[in-house]
Design goal:
By secondary structure, the protein is an all-alpha fold. The chain contains six helices and no strands.
Length: 179
């Protein structure tokens, strides 16, 4: 049995659910979910195998040897299940990060600012020629600006959305009055 952080977290979660729901009910739910996932994975695998065979026939008819491509597209149920589980993990992770974004964004802005301030002071205090210093500072400034664009500002405020909806309503009301 592995004793890494993820395994311990999984065991602790399982034990907590077991104590809350009961071992029999949890085992039944887990077996049902595993069976359902296996059935879905088998269906997707069969569909991919069928599509890859059709693609192989079409490529062969065109005179193209696509055996490697066709072989890579035909995934077994275990591989499909792995892809589905990783997709689910990515979806849950993305959802969690979107929820934590409001908490982490201000802290990350300060970290970014401190890092760039330290880099600026390092470049400004370096013994390089003024031309090299100017180039490095310009590059640092461009990098800071690009990172600022990537992070971007949070979505439009709810007040702005409400104002736009109110204006749309007023325009519709004016159209109704004109008719």
């Amino acid at each position: 049995a592995a004793d890494d952080l993820l395994s311990r977290l999984g065991r602790t979660s399982w034990e907590a659910l077991e104590s809350w729901v009961g071992p029999q009910a949890l085992r039944l739910v887990a077996e049902s979910l595993a069976t359902t996932l296996w059935i879905v994975s088998s269906g997707i695998s069969a569909a991919l195998t069928t599509l890859s065979k059709i693609l192989g026939v079409l490529l062969a008819a065109s005179g193209i040897n696509g055996d490697r491509l066709v072989g890579a597209a035909a995934l077994g149920p275990g591989e499909v299940q792995r892809v589905l589980l990783w997709g689910l993990a990515a979806l849950v992770g993305s959802w969690l990060l979107s929820r934590l974004r409001g908490l982490l964004l201000p802290a990350l802005r300060w970290v970014k600012l401190c890092c760039f301030l330290g880099a600026f002071l390092h470049v400004a205090a370096s013994q390089e020629s003024p031309t090299v210093q100017a180039g490095m500072l310009l590059g640092l400034w461009v990098l800071y600006a690009l990172l600022g664009r990537l992070v971007g500002s949070p979505g439009p405020s709810t007040q702005l959305d409400a104002t736009v909806r109110n204006l749309e309503w007023k325009v519709e009301e004016l159209w109704r009055r004109q008719k």
